[in-house]
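[audit] Reproducing an earlier prediction to check determinism. Same input, same settings, fresh worker. If the tokens differ from the archived copy the diff job will pick it up downstream; this log only records the rerun itself.
[audit] input (95 residues):
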Amino acid sequence: GAVAFLLLAGGQGTRLGTSDPKGCYDIGLPSHKSLFQLMAERLRRVSELSKEASATPGEKRMCSESATIPWYVMTSPQTDEVTQSFFREHCFFGP
């Protein structure tokens, strides 16, 4: 089957004390990872698990061979530019 990940990221973090999108926010974890980074890491892990689950018995898969799951981030006019810049600054949370 086919699958994709859709993240609705149109809201600003005004209640959190920032005008940036909530996904850019450091929620206070020791790692200081943003919500976007946490989602990217989880999505990458799901891709790896998907590939492992589809491997035939005895077949080994490398992480670089993980299944691709498209990630769509839906923004608003108020958050689009900042969100795109944030992803670029963080190399789209790639390896």
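[audit] rerun output stored. Observation attached for the diff report: Residues 35-54 form the longest helix (20 residues).
[audit] end
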